[in-house]
Amino acid sequence: MRSSPKEEDIECISLEEQEHPKPLTRSVSKWFKRKSQSIFRQSTVSVGRKIPISTALPKPYVREDTKKPYISNRITTARYNLWNFLPKQLYAQFSKVANLYFLFVACLQMIPGWSTTGQFTTILPLSIFTVVAMGREGYDDYRRHRQDQSENNKGVEVLRSYHNNAEPVSGSADGQHTLERRSTRNIGVWQQTKWKDVTVGDFVRINANDWVPADLFLLSTSTDDGICYVETAALDGESNLKQKQAIKEIDTLIKESPDGISNLEGYLQAENPNMDLYNFDGYLQHNEERYPVSVNQILLRGTILRNTTSAVGMVIFSGEETKIRMNASKNIRTKAPSLQKLINKAVISVFIALIALSLTSTVLGAVWERGSIHRWYLTGPKRDLARSFFSFIILLNTLIPISLYVTMEIVKLVQAYFINNDLEMYYAETDTPAEARTCTINEELGQISYIFSDKTGTLTDNVMLFRKYSVGGMAYVHDNQKVISHRLNSISKLYSSELNKVAEDIRPIEEDTKVTHLSGSISSRPCNQKSSRQMIERLISDPNSHFGRQADMFLLAMALCHTVVPEVSPETGDVNYQSMSPDEHAIVNAVHELGYTCIDRNSKSVSVVPLQGGHPLVFKVLNIIEFSSHRKRMSVIYQFPDGQIVLLCKGADSVILERLANGESNPATASNTFESKTQHMSIREEYLYSKAIEHVHQFASDGLRTLAYGHRYLDQDEYNVWSAIYSEACTSLVERQTKIEEAAELIEKNLSLTGITAIEDKLQEGVPETMEKMQMAGIRLWMLTGDKLETAINIGHSCRLIRDTSTVIILDPKQGSLTNQVQSALSNVTTNKGHSVVVIDGSTLALVEKDPVLLDSFLDLGVVSSAVICCRVSPSQKALVVRSIRRKIGSAVTLAIGDGGNDIAMIQEAHVGIGIAGREGLQAARSSDYSIARFRFLQRLLLVHGRWCYVRISKFVLGTFYKCVTFYLTQFFFQAFTGFSGTSLYEQWTLSLYNTLFSALPVLVLGMFEKDLNAETLLRFPSLYRTGQNNEMFNLRIFWIWMVNGVIQSVWITYIPLITQGAFSKGDVEDSPQLYFLGVIVYTAVVLVVTIKLSLLESHNWTWITAFATVGTIGLWFVWQLVFSVVYKPQDATNGYEVYGVFQAMISHPDFWGALVLVVVAALVPRVALIVLKRSFWPTEVDKFQEWEKDEKRITKMQETATSTNQYPQQRRNLFTKLNPWANSLRGRASKLNKARGWLPSRLSAQSDNQKYEDYALTESSTHNRH
């Protein structure tokens, strides 16, 4: 490869090569020169890092900018070490407001004389919960340390160079492989080194199936052409192999002699470390030659060498500067559940109530003290108001449950376990289960209001089938049958060609055949479409006709314009294609069936067996301009076997068609002399354009993905000038991609239309039913896709996003003011209240983005519409749409679902991100919150697990606050009998264990296992999902209903034991209860009431787990008291709590059992009566279904009624006769539509054009029918 010329060199080359140029060539060259000077002027700024290529220089290398060595290759994913774990974790734990609040209360308790509940009742449970959280974090970090150590100590072969002072010998010893030495300056020895000891500039040898230890610049491989393959699944989730190509000159130089690599000299100018996995800018300088370096020459850490014996590379980025590590530390938006906002409001309201109760108790205590001034038996200092206030805060502090966040984490982990192990969401074909990658936002799954879905790979299978194509003004249907077979003669090395016979069970497709696509969901209208066999027969019979030449070029373009790598079996001769793109794989397989077989590909050429067989034709690859999402096309420049230079361009039809030459004739089909022939060719070209555009719309109406092909013949001078510009762009370190795209614009123009391909991407199983159920659940659906408008609308029909009764609103700036269209549509949708679908494309959305007022109006329209389809949108536009809706409706929960890397931004913007673990890899799945294998699993994930999680978390939070209010308010009500002195009713150790031992299990079981309705019922009746959308299970009104219930029960629990003391015994003075005796009765009553309410009254799903929680909690309380009353010695008694032997005496005391029976009846019977009345006279929808679940026949009847009400007709009307008025005349007036879109010269009149086209169409049709 030659070095990149400077600007003056470009001028010299142009002048030398154009000593006698043609007028057209001279003007083109001057124009190229001016563009090159303005676009590709050399930058004098040093960019990136300059890495010497030499084995003799000492390591480690020193950076030119900082004068410090490059960082080591040691990586650290652990967050802590022995010295900073404790301080960092203490800061992390007490940065939580709740923990800080309880730490403040614990500090108050430590002040002598302030706490009446003991000094450890808060610090003990706080310490337990904090230690548990820190221990879990420490264990996770310990595992990370182990993983880091394992990776850092892996072995790899590194080249160590020594000066050659010995005679030439060869050999090996002790596992170190010495290269054969000749008369060279240095010799190289491959030595085993740990990954952590590899440095920038080291030469590393990777063997087959080995991991790449750092980011490497590929120097050479064991293959003859310098190609190797790597698996990138651990990096980007894609399972298919990626091809990497060493620079040919360097690869050859290294292979010339065993010590060639030891004496390699030069330097690599590389970009600075960054997170971009798909681009790399740099160049290699060697012996005055400069070679561009792209991502095709880079092996990234985290990849595995496959299908290659070995590869040698030089380390360019190490350790934390490798791309995989830089991506690992990327910050994304932190997601928090929407329910958390309501919980925070509840906590604040309880805290306000706590302050109010403390103030009330302080004031009442002061009043009581003033009234008791003449009571001679009360002695001691006067009460301090501040001390009294803080004492009541200490006494009542646990009204805010200290265990809420830790236990909620446990509950969510169990919920995530159920999601991960649901066999109904397991996809056996790919062995992929559902996976909850976070458990923080489980309840959000039950509150979704908007779903934003990708199409390809998400709604469809991403299994591409080549279905139709257009060439020479005719549309053809490909039936996936091999039309031409090639066989290799092992002696002559020639390929024979044979036209296959039509199988008896396969009928050729005639003109009036209906072709069904998308798994039978769409039937196209009868149209003039013939079979592939008919096209090949015509091509064989008359290869030199206009049609024959164009069809031949089209098939060649399909066989050449791609990056597919063929693999030919030496035993059978069968060809297997490896491709990173499913579209390209389908196209190359189809053209192989049509008789053009790509059998070999390397960096310099592609070999194709032509239709007629014989020797393979070798096409020299001059340049490849790769596909990008911005360009939406790729181009390859070939030198054909006859010496002609041809540009082949493939891409989106909208991009290719706008680059077609207006009225220029095709060099392959141009006539030589006659003016009438030239005029006929001009009409023919315009006719072909018109038919191609008509076929594009027909294919799109069948839901097919279309690609257009164009080609252009280049003369040598024009190519040379452009090649210099392109070479300069490829070696630029400043905005290389931009300059490459600008260089491509110079050559990808004035194309001749080659043909159109149409590929089917089938809908996944269960997509229409899932879409229907989501809409019945009150979820609004947005489909965001890169497909063209007609394809997107047709997919909308097939997946039931659009109904037959839907009003479809297409926003098109060509139809008038966008503002007026949006306002009119908004008014109509608001007034009509029917099912409406808004359709907008990416270019229109870009105009909407620029006007904030218009964007706000569009969002209003999207909110009130039943569904929205955004087509031709980029990844950034997908993210914009999701972010705009999320900010527009703060109360709505959004969900984004996709399967590809272009969906990651959208997934991360939504409240809940769902990744499809599909054929585009695991990129989206790994960046998501939850991953599933198929779209249909979304209905179970949301309607079942989502609703269950929402109900469980809601009841868990309500139950947690309820049990705390019920228990700790007994302390407040008891103060009326103590002169509001702050005396605790409970012994301090027993008090501190309430949240951890005696009330945790019922509320945990409620949060983990509650099922208010069965999964079958929830799937049958999606409308039940609205419970979460409307916050019907948890809001401030429901919260305070539970709290008031707890307050009332707390009153009964406190006063009934006090009032009834002695009522069940003789009533002697000796029987007057001591403080601990009374506290145990109240405590026992709380345990009974709370446990029965949470486990039996509030739980609909009674199982053995519920019974275990009920019996276990109550039994544990009695066991604790029996043991504690024996262990607690009399000398340990403080503040009047006589514990020793008391409980054994209590359980034989009538007052104990009598008070318990009265409390339970008084506290729970009213609640039971209220539940019965409510379900009998004012039942909710859930209450009804809970009763109906007991009657299967009734449920079945209701399901049939619901299905018939929401059933969609099986046969759908044709898209273009129903949706767009302007499309009704598309078939008969294609040229008029084309002129409106700017695809035809405006100088032609519609009537004359149509007449010419009709005449030409008749001629072409009759010619085709003859063949």
Relevant terms:
Calcium-transporting ATPase, cytoplasmic transduction domain A, 1267 residues, alpha+beta, 6 domains, disordered N terminus, single chain, disordered C terminus, ten-stranded mixed beta sheet, nine-stranded mixed beta sheet
What is the count of helical runs?
Answer: 41
* Number of E-state strands: 40
Mean pLDDT: 78
The protein's oligomeric status is: single chain
Structural domain count: 6
**Side-by-side strand order of the widest sheet:** 24-19-18-33-32-31-30-29-28-27
Distance between the termini: 48 Å
Q: How would a textbook summarize the main sheet? A: 10 strands, mixed
Compute the CA-based radius of gyration: 39 Å
- List low-confidence stretches: 1-33, 35-46, 168-183, 502-527, 663-681, 1204-1267
Assess the beta-strand content as a share of residues. Answer: 15-25%
SSE class:
alpha+beta
Kindly state the percentage of residues in helix. 40-55%
Which geometry do the CA atoms define? globular
Give a summary of the structure in a few sentences.
This protein is of the alpha+beta class. The protein has six domains: 82-151; 154-161 and 187-321, Distorted Sandwich (Calcium-transporting ATPase, cytoplasmic transduction domain A), CATH 2.70.150; 344-372 and 383-400, no CATH class; 403-418 and 945-1189, no CATH class; 420-462 and 762-943, HAD superfamily/HAD-like (Rossmann fold); 464-483 and 528-562 and 623-662 and 682-759, Calcium-transporting ATPase, cytoplasmic domain N (3-Layer(aba) Sandwich).
